[in-house]
C-alpha cells in the first residue's frame, strides 16, 4: 500500500469539476415509482430508432468485433467527405460529437486561456473548459434563450482560444441563420478556433442554412445520435481545415469509434430518405406539442430541434407529477434555468400520453 490518500488528492484537484448527469433511465423510474411502463422524453433521442439499413449493417459486422476497428474510419470519412465536398483529411470521427468538442478544446485551450460560449448552451462546454484548466467566459443571452452573437464576439480577446456556438441550441432550441453566423465570423480573429455545434441541424428549416460559412478556424461538429437514431453507438464527426485537424488528431485516442458504430453510421448516411421522413414527422409533432403548450401558457419559445422548452413556476412539482405517470422530462437546473423543463418530441402515441398527462395534472 502506498499510504497516499488518493480520494483527498482527487477532491482537491477536481473540486471545480462535476460529472455530466444524463436523463433518468427508464429502468430507474420504473423501480422508483413501482410502475411497469414509462416513456423517456429527457435525452432528445430519436423515438423511431435508426434506419433499417443501419440495423442490418450492425448485424453484418457483428462477427468481426474480435478485431480492432479501422482506427481512421476510412470508409465513413470517404462518405462524409463526399457529402460535404471536402477531402477526407478534413474529417475527424469521434465517439459522439461530444468527443470532437472535447478534443478541439483540449488541443487549443490550456491554463489561463479563455473559452467563450453562451450561458445557456450545451453543458459540456464549461465542463471541458474546466477540465483543461482554461477560463470560462459565459456570455448572457439577450432574451434569456438565444445566443447573443454580437456580445460573444465582443468577449473575444488575446487570451481567447476557442469560441463555441450551438446551432440549434441545446437546451433552448433557438437558432441563428447562416447569414447571422457569418456576420459574427467576420468579426473574429482568423486564428480563433470556432466550434459550431450542429447536433440538431437536420431539424432546422433549410432556409436557415442557405449558403456556406467561411472562417479558417471553423470546426463544424455533427452527430449520428439524433436524427440518425444511433445514440447508443456513440459516433459523430467534425469538418474543418486539414492542418487544424492534424493537430486535433494527436489528442484523439486510438480506435475511438467501434466497428459497429462506423458500419451503422455509413449505412445510415446512405438511407437518407428514411431519415428525412422521420425528421419531417418529428417536426410535425414538435409543432403539435408547441401549440398545445402555448395554449396553456407554458411554452418558453419555439424550437428548431427535436425538443420543446416549457416554463412552470413549480417545475419540480410538475416533474414529479409527470414521473409518477411514467413520463421522464429533463429538468434544466444544471443549465441555470430553475423553472424550466426540456421535453423531447416523441412518437404520436407518446405525445398523446404527454398531453393527456398534462391536462390531468393541470386540470
Give an overview in words.
The chain is an alpha/beta fold and 363 residues long. It folds into 2 domains: 20-49 and 273-362, Aspartate Aminotransferase, domain 1; 52-271, Type I PLP-dependent aspartate aminotransferase-like (Major domain) (Aspartate Aminotransferase, domain 2, 3-Layer(aba) Sandwich). It has helices at 6-13, 26-33, 52-61, 74-84, 97-108, 124-131, 149-154, 178-185, 242-248, 259-269, 272-295, 315-324, 348-362; strands at residues 39-40, 91-94, 114-118, 135-139, 160-166, 193-197, 218-223, 236-239, 299-301, 307-311, 327-328, 330-331, 340-344. A 7-stranded mixed β-sheet has the order 2-8-7-6-5-3-4, sandwiched between helices. Helix 8 (178-185) links the parallel strand 5 (160-166) and strand 6 (193-197). The model has no long low-confidence stretch (mean pLDDT 94).
CATH homologous group name of the largest domain: Type I PLP-dependent aspartate aminotransferase-like (Major domain)
Low-confidence stretches: none
The structural domain count equals: 2
Count every beta strand, where a strand is a DSSP E run of 2 or more residues. Answer: 13
* CATH classification, class level of the largest domain: Alpha Beta
SSE sequence, one letter per element = HHEHHEHEHEHEHEEEHHHEEHEEEH
Per CATH, what is the topology of the largest domain?
A: Aspartate Aminotransferase, domain 2
Give the overall shape: globular
Instruction: State the helicity in percent bands.
Output: 25-40%
CATH architecture of the largest domain: 3-Layer(aba) Sandwich
Name the strands of the widest sheet in spatial order: 2-8-7-6-5-3-4
Residues in β-strands, percent: 15-25%
Rg to the nearest angstrom? Answer: 21 Å
Tell me the span between the first and last alpha carbons.
62 Å
Largest sheet: 7 strands, mixed
Structural class label: alpha/beta
Number of helices: 13
Average pLDDT, rounded to a whole number, is 94
Amino acid at each position: 500500500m502506498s499510504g497516499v490518500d488518493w480520494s483527498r488528492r482527487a477532491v482537491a484537484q477536481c473540486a471545480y469539476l462535476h460529472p455530466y448527469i444524463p436523463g433518468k433511465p427508464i429502468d430507474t423510474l420504473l423501480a422508483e415509482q413501482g410502475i411497469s411502463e414509462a416513456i423517456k422524453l429527457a435525452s432528445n433521442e430519436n423515438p423511431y430508432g435508426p434506419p433499417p439499413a443501419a440495423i442490418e449493417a450492425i448485424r453484418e459486422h457483428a462477427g468481426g468485433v474480435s478485431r480492432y476497428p479501422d482506427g481512421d474510419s476510412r470508409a465513413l470519412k470517404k462518405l462524409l467527405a463526399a457529402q460535404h465536398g471536402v477531402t477526407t483529411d478534413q474529417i475527424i470521427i469521434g465517439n459522439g460529437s461530444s468527443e470532437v468538442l472535447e478534443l478541439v478544446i483540449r488541443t487549443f485551450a490550456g491554463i489561463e486561456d479563455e473559452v467563450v460560449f453562451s450561458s445557456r448552451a450545451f453543458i459540456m462546454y464549461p465542463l471541458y473548459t474546466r477540465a483543461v484548466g482554461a477560463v470560462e467566459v459565459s456570455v448572457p443571452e439577450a432574451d434569456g434563450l438565444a445566443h447573443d452573437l454580437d456580445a460573444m464576439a465582443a468577449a473575444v480577446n488575446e487570451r481567447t482560444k476557442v469560441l463555441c456556438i450551438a446551432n440549434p441550441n441545446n437546451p433552448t432550441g433557438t437558432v441563428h441563420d447562416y447569414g447571422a453566423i457569418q456576420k459574427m465570423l467576420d468579426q473574429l480573429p482568423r486564428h480563433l478556433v470556432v466550434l459550431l455545434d450542429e447536433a440538431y441541424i437536420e431539424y432546422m428549416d433549410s432556409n436557415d442554412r442557405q449558403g456556406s460559412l467561411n472562417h479558417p478556424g471553423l470546426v463544424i461538429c455533427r452527430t449520428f445520435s439524433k436524427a440518425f437514431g444511433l445514440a447508443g453507438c456513440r459516433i459523430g464527426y467534425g469538418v474543418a481545415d486539414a492542418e487544424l485537424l492534424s493537430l486535433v488528431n494527436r489528442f484523439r485516442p486510438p480506435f475511438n469509434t467501434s466497428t459497429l458504430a462506423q458500419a451503422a453510421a455509413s449505412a445510415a448516411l446512405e438511407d437518407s430518405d428514411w431519415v428525412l421522413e422521420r425528421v419531417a414527422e418529428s417536426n410535425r409533432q414538435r409543432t403539435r406539442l408547441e401549440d398545445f403548450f402555448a395554449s396553456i401558457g407554458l411554452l418558453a419559445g419555439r424550437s428548431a430541434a427535436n425538443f420543446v422548452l416549457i416554463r412552470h413556476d413549480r417545475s419540480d412539482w410538475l416533474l414529479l407529477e409527470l414521473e409518477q405517470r411514467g413520463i421522464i422530462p429533463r429538468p434544466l437546473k444544471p443549465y441555470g434555468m430553475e423553472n424550466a423543463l426540456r421535453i423531447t418530441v416523441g412518437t404520436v402515441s407518446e405525445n398523446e400520453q404527454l398531453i393527456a398527462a398534462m391536462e390531468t395534472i393541470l386540470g
